[in-house]
Design goal:
alpha/beta, 7 helices, five-stranded parallel sheet, FAD/NAD(P)-binding domain, elongated, 2 domains, binds NADP nicotinamide-adenine-dinucleotide phosphate, binds flavin-adenine dinucleotide, 321 residues, seven-stranded mixed sheet, 21 strands
């Protein structure tokens, strides 16, 4: 069993929230350790152009995250490729155990575990995951050159995925359960002006249809939510883009949550229900869920942690003995 690593500040997550917390935590001389998790760089590594990061009219999501990582490292953060499997917040120092068995203890902790793609929960969706069903157009779009694709959803992600997929697909059908999109107006305009994209309003996905040998998608069965009428649409690819759920499995029953599972923080701060544990980014934000707001909350969390550590240095040092 590897030795226990102790740190004043442990940051879990390597999205905009985690890296921003790391920049501030390192500049406060807290020598933070940041654990990247299974998706180094977070959700923005699954997209292409980001056009709303101030200072960059357009930047590729993965490039932005490489720059954030380099920045956090240059300021003195120790960045580790590891995944936290267990967390004990019942007493300080807090304990985190990674899936490799490494044990970390921390006087303060920032939870920046972000969010994960939601699925519809259909058995046929599950059966064809990785074989024609995906939640990441930038990862898998390339496989559908000259083919027909269906995208499910009506938010920013669905519209961006549909637009991106037109680079490869011969036709993209956007299936949405209403006739109004949530996506930003500028994205909607691009969508409606793209001749390869065909919106299908008031429909939901009922079943993904395909073959076993070789395993692959051939069509989808969709239902009109007003009339119940069922139609089949030929498609080799199905991209599910119906939103994201906060990644809170580490803290279930340890931190107060609200609004369908988001970690609850004291308004105007990043303080969770456990003193010394701070939450930042999509894991706590059910409203804005943007890179810039996540980064802002990462900054707040590091400042809150710094203040907490300054006030509790004596008891954390004592508890660690
Ligand atoms: P995330 O980016 O979700 O990162 C979470 C991190 O936590 C990951 O690094 C993960 O590995 C880590 N983690 C999770 N569990 C563990 C664990 N147990 N142990 C260790 N680490 C763990 N926003 C914009 O502002 N502009 C855009 O153009 C834009 N485009 C988007 C396109 C797509 C396709 C998607 C899905 C989202 C987009 N967003 C965009 C939203 C933006 O990506 C998120 O708001 C932002 O990434 C949230 O940052 P975060 O740091 O809170 O979490
Ligand atoms: P979202 O905004 O929550 O939208 C989810 C979409 O999926 C909605 O249109 C919703 O329909 C639909 N949906 C949800 N559950 C469904 C179900 N069971 N069956 C069918 N449809 C379902 O999620 P998102 O688009 O992933 O965006 C998440 C956050 O990231 C947002 O804050 C967004 O602004 C941000 N983001 C930003 C950018 C950008 O700035 N360019 C890009 C991507 C994401 P209803 O509309 O009917 O509810």
């Amino acid at each position: 069993m590897p030795d226990t690593r102790h740190t004043r500040l442990l940051i879990i997550g390597s999205g905009p929230a985690g890296y921003s917390a790391a920049v501030y935590g390192a500049r406060a001389l807290l020598d933070p350790i940041l654990i990247q998790g299974l998706q180094p760089g977070g959700q923005l590594t699954t997209t292409t152009e980001v056009e709303n990061w101030p200072g960059d009219t357009e930047i590729q999501g993965p490039d932005l995250m490489v720059r954030m990582e380099a920045h956090a490292r240059a300021m003195g953060t120790e960045i580790l490729q590891d995944y936290i499997a267990e967390l004990d917040l019942s007493r300080r120092p807090f304990t985190a155990i990674s899936d490799s068995g490494q044990r970390y203890t921390a006087d303060a902790l920032i939870l920046a575990t972000g969010a994960q793609a939601k699925w519809l929960g259909l058995p046929s969706e599950e059966a064809f995951k990785g074989f024609g069903v995906s939640a990441c157009a930038t990862c898998d779009g390339f496989f559908y050159r000259g083919q027909e694709i269906v995208v499910i959803g009506g938010g920013n992600t669905a519209v961006e995925e549909a637009l991106f997929l037109t680079r490869f697909a011969s036709k993209v059908t956007l299936v949405h359960r209403r006739d109004t999109l949530r996506a930003e107006k500028i994205l909607q305009e691009r969508l409606f002006n793209n001749p390869k994209i065909h919106p299908l309003w008031h429909h939901q996905l009922d079943e993904v249809l395909g073959s076993d040998m070789p395993r692959g998608v051939e069509a989808v069965r969709v239902r009109d939510v007003r009339t119940g009428a069922v139609t089949e649409i030929p498609a080799e690819g199905v991209f599910v883009a119906i939103g994201h759920a906060p990644a809170t499995s580490l803290v279930t029953d340890q931190l107060e949550t609200h609004m369908g599972g988001y970690v609850k923080v004291r308004p105007g701060t990043t303080e969770t229900s456990v003193p010394g544990v701070f939450a930042a980014g999509d894991v706590t934000d059910h409203v804005y869920r943007q890179a810039i707001t996540s980064a802002g909350m990462g900054c707040m969390a590091a400042l809150d942690a710094e203040r907490f550590l300054a006030e509790h240095t004596a008891d954390t040092a004592h508890a660690a003995e």
